[in-house]
Structure formats: structure tokens, C-alpha cells
Write a structure and sequence with these properties.
66 residues; mainly alpha; globular
């Protein structure tokens, strides 16, 4: 999978969590695995992951079991 495709997929997964207001443990693990698939987290991926962490920290998105 190309870097652009991974970035788009990562963005889509994070947007879904924002829309749901929830992020399951499985979704979180999938997001991290996708970001690290090529063993390099580029600046775009780092930015998306940072935004997700911020949303989790301020409870805009809450982490749930699943």
C-alpha cells in the first residue's frame, strides 16, 4: 500500500472514530498498525496520530473496549 493510500485510510479510520465519538481497542490497534506498516511514521501520519491523541485526551473521542 502506498504512503498516500495509508494516509487516506488512516484519516478515514480517525474520522470514523470522531463521528462515533468512540474508539475501540481494536480500532486503535488497527490505526497504529496501519501507521507503522512501513516501519516509518511520516509527518502526515504523525500529525493524524497527534490529533487523535488530543481528541482522546480532551474526551472528544473516548476509548472503549472492543
Amino acid at each position: 500500500m502506498k504512503s498516500e493510500d495509508r494516509g487516506a485510510s488512516l484519516s478515514k479510520m480517525i474520522k470514523k472514530a470522531i463521528e462515533d465519538g468512540e474508539l475501540t481497542t481494536k480500532e486503535y490497534e488497527d490505526i497504529l498498525a496501519l501507521a507503522n506498516a512501513d516501519k516509518v511514521i511520516d509527518s502526515y501520519e504523525r500529525n493524524l496520530l497527534g490529533q487523535l491523541q488530543e481528541l482522546l485526551a480532551n474526551h472528544t473521542v473516548r476509548k472503549v473496549q472492543g
